[in-house]
Amino acid sequence: MHDEGLRILVLLSIAFFFGITCFIIYFIILYRNKQLINKQEQEKLQATFRQELLKTQIEMQEQTLLHISREIHDNITQVLSFVKLDLAMASAADEKLKQTKINASRDLVAQAINDLRDLSKSLSFEHISQLGLVKTIEIETGRINKSGIIRAMLTTEGEAYSLGEQRDLVIFRIFQEALNNTLKHAGARQLKISLQYYPELFILTLEDDGDGFLPDLLEKGKGSGLKNMENRAALIGAQAAIDSSPGKGCYIKVTLNPLEQRLYADGYHPNRFG
Amino acid sequence: MDPFSILECLVLLAASCAGLIRYRRLGLSFRILTWSAVAVFTLTIIADISSAIYRTNALVLQIECITQYVFYSLTYYFIFKNNLVKKAIIISVVVISALFFINGVFLQSFNKDFPTNIYIPTQILYAAFSLLLFKEMLMYPVRINIIKQSVFWYNTAILFYGTTMFFILGIYNYMAAHNLDDNFIFVFWYIIIYAFNILMCIALLTENKKNSPADA
User: Fold this and answer.
1) Are the CB atoms for A154 and A206 separated by under 8 Å?
2) CB-based contact (8 Å) between B167 and chain A?
3) Among candidates A20, A31, A39 on the partner chain, residue whose Cβ is nearest the Cβ of B163
4) Could you tell me the pTM of the whole model?
5) Residue A215 carries which DSSP code?
6) Contact check, Cβ <8 Å, A271/B216
7) Which residues of B touch A30 (CB under 8 A)?
8) Inter-chain contact A274–B136, Cβ cutoff 8 Å?
9) Are β-strands A250-256 and A201-208 bridged in parallel, bridged antiparallel, or unpaired?
10) Which residue of B has its CA nearest to A5?
11) Distance from CA of B136 to the nearest CA of A (A)
């Protein structure tokens, strides 16, 4: 009887150990499956991010080329046409008028050279990494003010730091898109741009005094450019908030925690448990 | 000291040495684990000496019981990311410590009895923490091979220890009640202790704070 009891206890103990071992093996298999699923998801996110980044770069290049062609057509060609006209008139004029025309033509040529020099420094994504986001936005603001279409004011707060090349690029693209919207659709006279740099927070705000739009434009999917801004911001771990109402202009705020690591945005991150 | 005790001390010494030699490469939670291994090794030696000289090692075993719980709980505290579980761990340490003193004064005397009243809830809590951590590991898997994760080895050790010790205590009570030969229990007891400390040793050898999910 005692031997029987002992035998049962031994068997129970062995079964118990076996149960624990099976549980551990089952957990290992389950964990490996989870790792595989996680890896596939990360790769998908990385691919999406790379695609978006490429799209952003292409859009910026298109924007730059558009700007260059517009400047050449509207500005430089016009100036050189005036030079041609002046020089043609100078050949038939008297000495005094000839000299005036030549001086005027020289001034116009100098202006054309300056404009071409400015064009050669036109914005591309390489400039952002060289000059930094603040300087790049400063140059863009200066260009807008020079055009006279709208009065743009840029303010910066705090000591500027790099958010990372890819994040700077995406933030600048969001800024460009917002700027284009203001110029094309808002009918605004003033645009306030603000860059705020805090140790754990970066904020970009754009505020215009234009016509504004209905808030449901985003939900109805008609404002695809606006939706694009939100999606791009989310891709780099930022939040984009767009606030507008008819007659009250538009307010766009992009916030980002520069310390937050994103695997697919930064290319490397420490293995995180949570 | 019988051969089983000597082997137990050697295994404990191996775990302590593994932790101390690799101390700089360990994260905070595994540094705490290293000190727990050193403490348990020291208390085991004192328990054997006390047993030889005073014919009782109840007091040392009582201290060992609460010391182990505090150290292992703190190790879990720094591994878990879930704030609710962390709070529960701290509360459990306070409650178990209070129960330990009440048990020692009123129920199972510090000088005479083995603290089974404290052992049972602590083993249940070990099993609970271990299962919660396994769940958290599944929810947030990392890219490191699971065999190379020190957290996995530590958690396996605690799950194994918590469940089997509870089981063994139950069997021991049954055998005592039915006057059965309890040598079998002691063999199993020692197997569990050896396996537990070997798993702890592996955890300390695989831990590297640069790659570890713990303390991230």
Assistant:
1) no
2) yes
3) A20
4) 0.65
5) T
6) yes
7) 138
8) yes
9) antiparallel
10) B180
11) 8
Q: Is B208 on the interface with A (CB under 8 A)?
A: no
- Residues β-bridged to residue A251: A207, A243
The reported pLDDT for the residue numbered B214 is 57
How far does the CA of residue B47 sit from the closest CA of chain A (Å)?
27
CB atoms within 10 A of CB A110: 11
pLDDT tens across B173-198, in order? 777 777 776 677 778 888 889 999 99
Kindly state whether B187 is in contact with chain A, defined as any CB-CB distance less than 8 angstroms: no
pLDDT in tens, chain A (274 residues): 567 777 777 788 788 888 989 999 999 999 999 999 988 998 898 888 888 888 888 887 787 788 788 878 877 888 888 888 888 888 887 888 888 888 888 888 998 888 887 777 665 556 677 788 898 899 889 888 887 888 999 999 999 888 888 888 889 889 988 888 888 888 888 999 999 999 889 999 999 988 888 776 655 555 567 778 888 888 888 899 988 888 888 999 999 988 876 555 544 333 333 2
Other Cβ atoms within 10 Å of A186 Cβ, number: 20
In our burial notation (b when 16+ CB lie closer than 10 A, e otherwise), range B22-46 reads beeebbebbbbbbbbbbbbbebbbe
DSSP E strand boundaries for chain A: 151-157, 190-198, 201-208, 238-244, 250-256
Of A13, A32, A39, the CB nearest to B146: A32
**Domain hosting residue B85, numbered range:** 3-215
* DSSP-assigned letter for residue A192: E
Cβ separation of A35 and B213 shorter than 8 Å? no
Tell me the per-residue pLDDT of B16-27, one tens digit each, with 9 for 90 and over.
Answer: 999 999 999 999
Mutate to test the interface with A, among B29, B138, B153, B168 (most CBs of A within 10 A): B138
Q: What DSSP state is assigned to residue A186?
A: I
If one counts the domains in chain B, the total is 1
Contact B164, B126 (CB under 8 A): no
Helix then strand then coil, % of chain A, to nearest 5: 65, 15, 20
Asked if A34 lies within 8 A of B156 by C-beta distance, the reply is: no
Contacts of B66 (CB under 8 A, 6+ apart): B96, B97, B100, B118
**A contacts of B142 (beta carbons < 8 Å):** 35, 271-273
Hey, is A203 helix, strand or coil? Answer: strand
Q: Please tell me the total number of residues recorded for chain A in this structure.
A: 274
Cβ partners under 8 Å of residue B72, min gap 6 = B33, B36, B126, B158
- What single letter denotes the amino acid at residue A169? L
Report chain A's terminal Cα–Cα distance, integer Å.
54
Indicate the burial class of B87 (C-beta count within 10 angstroms; 0-12, 13-18, 19 or more).
exposed
